[in-house]
Amino acid sequence: MLSKFVPLGGALLLIASCSTPQFEAEKNLCAEKWYKILPPNMVQRQETEYRSERRFTGRQTCETGDSGQIVCKADYIDVEIPYSVLVDVDLNKRERDARIKSCTQQACSLKYGNTSCDVQATN
Fold first, then answer.
1. Do 121 and 100 share a structural domain?
2. CA distance 21 to 19
3. Number of domains in the chain
4. Which residues have CB under 8 Å from 19's CB, separation 6+?
5. Residues 1 and 34 placed together within one structural domain of the fold
6. How much is the pTM?
7. Is the C or the N end of the chain the one with fewer CB within 10 Å?
């Protein structure tokens, strides 16, 4: 499930795919609570990312065509090139997301009898 938070009037709105409106409402309440308890703690870290580059191997593959003409093609390989980037990291994100998930599932279980707030499952 892909989710992100968007500040909205002092509260946080969580957007997620494939969930019920009831689940989203409980998740928003839990997110508001846990963002107050564990606010973002942003730090910059240097991380390694990679880009791909095609490089000539120094070899060629040659074939003789139907007309007897020799056709050669250069051989290339893809090489991963590491480079450093500065990224902003929220040190509280992992714990906060786990707390929001747990809080949401508990609230859904209490209100709807299931962890997904599925109204149909209670029938």
1. yes
2. 7
3. 2
4. 1, 27, 116, 117
5. yes
6. 0.60
7. C
